[in-house]
């Protein structure tokens, strides 16, 4: 079974939330305290048939109601008798409702209102994991519940298959027992309550206390870092659920399907391990891990495993390069709402540009607002510009995105808008003219051809030649004395519309002593040749707030307004 749609009413801060679910993997993103974990807890309650508590009711005078839709495989059709959607026998829509905190959840078929037994709902094998679990209390061969249950099972299974094997010399243990007993007999408290040493007679109990897990350095896993422990915990939790499933399955059931719900699995893991963990889980869920498959066959007789995954995360590192897998929660008119990217409809050109730049966009899905710039110089300078204007992008939840070209700015803005993220775009004037781009509130254009000429023009307008030349020498010690070839200068003059300028020789910047068109052309040429991450940073660090071009100031102010409004 696969979950395809959920609608929640009156559960905590999820007043009227609805969203579509991908069949394989889903990443739920959004700000802190928006309701992501609440969504997962609600699903867990529904599929485990756990009663909602008083604190779960946003309004105690109203019921908590959850409508959800399941996709049934061919083998699962008929599991709910003839209760399916009228137009699709492979789909069923169910309403789970709890009227008051004192009641229990009731399940009914959405179309007919016919009751559905809890036992059928529990056939959906739900595996939950959250970062609040303590792996040290679970990863232990002696535990019969939690993630350690599978480890205990391995010991128990071995003892069951080898009942005749002796695991210790009883005569030697009796000597140890007597020695300890004689020593303790001299302590009145032990004697008073008749407390005596005892030798464990149960082989499973004995072995589960002797066997431990150690890493390659011989260090007990319980002494390893949380990153190692949480990696193990997630997989062991999956195996625990498979164990529970096998206790009640029929002999001819060899397929296991599950809904895996993970809350912030990235905690305690570095970026590479975050991605590795999610990739491993997805391989398991698709039945592509042959070693794991062999384990399931040998231990449980399971020949097929399929799982649907729902992950709540605050890490862009684990997001796949496929925006369809993202579900974003955000506030709209004071209420939590959500958008499923699987439902987004973008044009072919928009989607092409989006995929090309998606690795730079991932972080933006966690933001309140975003500012999209064309290239590397703008990308490295705008954060510093904002600081000098008193705007902290991180504190205000503003994402700065490098579009990689003017043609990508608007598609990225369109995608962010559909995700409920307000954005502004900054585009060079030459691209506005070339692409015939519109004038709109959240699009800002340079007054000159591009970033390079805009910075030069505005510094010269403010009579800031000293700052301009410091930027040049900070970038290249010989920048002022280096001669620019006549031919190349003419090309730049044509590109940047320096009309009527006579270029009759090679010339260096320091040969111009006045604020002339030639001096401006030389500076713009230098800037255009040096553009990039380091150069943009150098520019931003050298100029004052008053030197920032007005179009860039307006863009920063507008994105700050958007962020604060959210």
Automatic annotation (TrEMBL):
Residues 366-430 form the OLD protein-like TOPRIM domain. GO terms for molecular function: ATP binding; ATP hydrolysis activity. SUPFAM superfamilies: P-loop containing nucleoside triphosphate hydrolases. Residues 25-319 form the ATPase AAA-type core domain. It comes from the Bacteria. CDD domains: ABC_ATPase, TOPRIM_OLD. This is Uncharacterized protein. It comes from Agathobacter rectalis.
